[in-house]
Specification:
This protein is an alpha+beta fold. It has 13 helices and 12 strands.
């Protein structure tokens, strides 16, 4: 278990917002904040593969744009319980506001903008590779607000608070034992929220195995409704109803293939491959059509995304502990 404590009160007033921007660049573009009265405090624990703790800050406006996503390449979920103050989430869903113990879930692969008052939050960061396999629909949780009164949300809030309180006394071995239970509780909470918040059909127990099957066969040219129906012994109409909450079979496969291309375009070890080679490897045959679909999905062309991904952000060292920021950058 490792502890990081970041507190701008240790700095001259004129340096506080600058130090926060330099540390928070691991996650956010801080576009607006009160430079005269700004303050922020982070107490974070890094236990096994989880990062958790508390953040206390004055008001600010934050953004994750496609440019930001392309540059940092983060692939994790962040959960935030707002125990004091509020935060507005502005994204492809309607505006939502979290307050009074509500849970905000953020997917670092998705764009989002937020506006907050002064707040105190309890946060948890989980690598996507650990949580996504347990979620019915892993791409449905970016920029969402979940009501504090939901039983599983309340249970998860209590668990995270207890975990944060116990952190100083936990050994690495104990934290390793606690991690699976923590991730399982998060998955149960988010799956429960999806079934109530997105569509009743998501309750179907077949959606998760079908999604996993699609992800495992994305490179197959035969992947489609007939193939999936035959694999699971279902009628095509049944598969269609099961997949309707995620946009239908064709739309879901297209989205997953585009995301796979985006991930490959970001990877330094694949720089030797052309965009066309990557595109063909994931089942796209027409460069113009692929470029148009990629731009519609992610707001920039594949070439621009690859170039932007190669840009390394330069983050100046601060005078105070910002190990929590480094942990987040290195999380995978």
């Amino acid at each position: 278990m490792f502890l990081s404590e970041f507190d701008t009160s240790r700095l001259p007033r004129r340096s506080r917002l600058k130090a926060w921007r330099e540390a928070a660049t691991a996650v956010w573009d801080i576009s607006q904040a009160d430079e005269q009265d700004f303050s922020a405090k982070v107490k974070a624990w890094h236990g096994h593969e989880l990062i958790f703790g508390t953040i206390e800050s004055t008001s600010q406006t934050t953004n994750r744009t496609e440019d930001w996503i392309a540059q940092d390449g983060f692939d994790y979920y962040m959960l935030q319980f707002y125990n004091r103050g509020f935060r507005r989430i502005l994204d492809r869903f309607e505006d939502r506001t979290a307050r009074g113990g509500d849970l905000v879930t953020l997917d670092m692969t998705q764009t989002v903008s937020t506006m907050s008052s002064s707040y105190l939050s309890n946060d948890l960061v989980i690598p996507r590779r650990k949580l996504a396999p347990l979620l019915v629909y892993p791409d449905a949780h970016g920029g969402r607000v979940h009501d504090a009164r939901l039983p599983l949300v309340s249970l998860l809030r209590s668990h995270l608070a207890a975990l944060t309180e116990a952190a100083p006394k936990l050994t690495d071995l104990q934290m390793a034992d606690l991690q699976p239970a923590t991730i399982a509780l998060v998955a149960a909470t988010l799956n429960g929220v999806v079934s109530e918040d997105i569509a009743p059909e998501v309750r179907s127990s077949l959606l998760l195995p079908i999604r996993k099957f699609v992800d495992a066969h994305l490179r197959s040219p035969d992947l489609g409704l007939p193939h999936i129906a035959a694999q699971f012994g279902l009628s095509r109409s049944t598969v269609y109803r099961i997949m309707k909450p995620v946009g239908g079979v064709s739309a879901f496969i297209l989205e997953r293939r585009l995301r796979a291309c985006r991930a490959d375009l970001r990877r330094p070890e694949l720089r030797h491959k052309t965009i066309s080679e990557i595109m063909l490897g994931w089942g796209f045959s027409n460069p113009q059509s692929f470029s148009s679909m990629f731009r519609r999905a992610f707001g920039m062309s594949p070439r621009a995304f690859r170039q932007q991904s190669a840009v390394q952000k330069s983050v100046a060292a601060t005078e105070i502990d910002s190990n929590w920021s480094r942990w987040i950058k290195e999380l995978s």
